[in-house]
UniProtKB/TrEMBL annotation:
Membrane topology designation: Multi-pass membrane protein
Family: Belongs to the ninjurin family.
UniProt keyword Membrane present: yes
Name this protein carries in UniProt: Ninjurin-A isoform X1
Annotated transmembrane regions: 64-86, 98-126
Amino acid sequence: MAQIATSMANAFSNESEMKAMDANRYATKKTIAQGMLDIALLTANASQLKYILQVGDQHQFYKLMLIMISLSIILQLLVGILFVVIGSLNINRQKDQAAAVIINDIILVIIFVISVINVIISGFGIEYSSRPLTLLEQQANNLP
C-alpha cells in the first residue's frame, strides 16, 4: 500500500514538473534544431550546385537541375529568415502566439516543398566525384 502511495506521489510530482516546463524555451530549442538541419541540407545543395555547374551542359538535365537546386537554396534561405523571426517571438505573450502559429504553418509548407524538390533532385541523379576526369574521360566527353 505504501508503494502505491509513493508511486502516486511521484506521478503527481512529475506532472507538476511537466507543467512548470517553459514552452518558450522548448520552442526556441526546437527552432535551433530545425535550423541546424536546414544548414545541413543547404550544405548538400551547395555541393550539388557546384557539381552541376562543373559538369555543365554535359549533364542530361542541366537546366532542370540548376533551377531545382537554386529554388531549393532560395527556399531554404527564406525558411532560415523565418526561423530567426519565429525565434524572436515570445509565445508566452498572447499577441505573439497568433503570429508564431501562422509563421510556423508557413515554415511547415515551405519545408514540405523543399523536401519534394530535393526528392526530385535525387531522382535525376546527382553523382558526386571527388576525382578529376582522366584524359580519356575528357576526350570521351569532348572536354578540353
